[in-house]
Every structure is written in structure tokens, then in C-alpha cells.
User: What shape does this take?
Amino acid sequence: MKTDNRSFEMVEEFKYLGQTLTNQKSILDEIKNRLKSRNACYHSAQSLLSSSLLSKNSKNKIYRTIILPVVLHGCEIWSLTFREERRPRVYENRVLWRIFGPKRDKITGEWGKLHNEELNDLYSSPNIVGVIKSRMRWEGT
Assistant: This one.
């Protein structure tokens, strides 16, 4: 493409302000990249999230202030389909399982995994997809 005696090469994707922009409508690749960045951040805080010395409230604050912003960086331009919403939800539930741990049945005394609804009840903040959608509204989408 030429404009004002300048040529611009057509590319499939490019990085702009930390976001990978593509000529495709799907934002799935950018979500995958955000979750990969999250891995490094999560693994650095994993020992804190697994520690029995910290309260669940402290672990929750670590997640919201250190890990979540890494995942949400640039989410204002995401336009999520139902399929694309799944990855952030699964990611968040894995972190919340790490924070809140297993539950003990009061009657049988057996340990079991918390269900997603129970995790949402324990996690007092809006879920990750709700945060993404609220930030999209800030941008007028």
C-alpha cells in the first residue's frame, strides 16, 4: 500500500503497545499470549499461593494485585465470543482452586474439589470475564 510517497507492507499480524494485532477477527491468540505471560507470574507466586502460612484473604489479594493485571493487560480491545471466554474462566478457576484448596465434607469427613459455583461464592470479586467485559464498556464497545 502506498500513501504520501510511502510504502507500507501488508502483514498478517504485528505487535502494538504490547498487543499482537491480527487481520483475523478472533482474539484467541492474544488471549493465549496473555495466559502464557501469566504462567511466569503465576509460577513466581505459586509458593505463596500454596503456603499454609498465608490466609486465603492474603492469597486472594496476591492474585488480584499481582497475577490478574498481567492477564488483563490490554483486554479493553478484546471482543470475546463464548468460546473465547472459556480460557480465562478455566485459568481463573485453577488459581482459585490453588488459593481455596479442597473442601471437607462435614458429614463424611472426605476431602473433595470445590465446584466452580463454590469457588465463585468464595471469591468475593467479579469473575475474570466480568472484569474483561466491564473494561470493554469503558472503551465504548
In short: The longest strand covers residues 13-16. Helices lie at 28-50, 56-72, 82-100, 116-122, 128-138. The CA atoms of residues 117 and 123 lie 10 Å apart. The chain has one domain: 26-138.
